[in-house]
Write a structure and sequence with these properties.
alpha/beta, five-stranded mixed sheet, 183 residues, single chain, 27% helix
């Protein structure tokens, strides 16, 4: 018995189809806040949000992130990839760099990514264990971007080439805050 070949489509799976998997948000196993991040209103907002989600954040005694090294590289990777650290961005975050052709300037909402993509360039680009670091002084970073706008010209900004800001949105609201700022 011959059957007609099933028509294939390059379109995404339509809602309601059996192959669709539910979306799963990243929830870090460990969330740490540096003392510096806890004096920033945005840092406090993140603290309230993760607490509201039922997560148990810890406030470190110093501004140094510890506890990310395991007994071997694999364990270090596992510990770091499951950690969200809320820190104050360094002064270098205020010096934007051009990033053509994607945008005129890049600024950072965060650094590091919770995903485990095998092809990712971040794994070799960032120093230290690959923990996700969110910047508690994001409003200050956004205000600083005004200095990089070109009067009378359309200026574009890329919001974090060192992370996936959408993957952190449910925890931080940083992408929404950035969009509101530019609108």
């Amino acid at each position: 018995m011959q059957t007609e070949p099933k028509e294939t489509s390059l379109l995404p799976i339509q809602p309601g189809e059996d192959d669709q998997k539910p979306t799963r948000l990243w929830m870090p196993r460990r969330i740490v806040f540096t003392p510096e991040s806890m004096v920033e209103p945005y840092g406090l907002k993140i603290f309230e949000q993760v607490t509201r989600l039922g997560l148990k954040p810890e406030i470190l005694k110093s501004n140094r992130i510890t506890g990310l090294r395991g007994e071997n590289e694999r364990e270090t990777y596992r510990l770091a990839k499951s950690t969200l650290a809320v820190v104050k961005a360094p002064p270098s975050a205020m010096r934007l760099t051009p990033i053509p052709p994607s945008a005129d300037w890049q600024f950072h909402i965060a650094q590091g990514c919770p995903a485990h993509c095998h092809y990712c360039y971040l794994a070799g680009s960032l120093s230290g264990p690959p923990a996700v670091r969110v910047y508690s002084n994001l409003p200050e970073i956004l205000e600083n971007n005004i200095h990089f706008e070109r009067p009378g010209q359309f200026t574009t900004f890329e919001a974090s080439c060192y992370t996936d800001p959408l993957s952190l949105e449910h925890l931080t609201g940083g992408l929404s805050l950035s969009i509101e700022h530019f609108s």
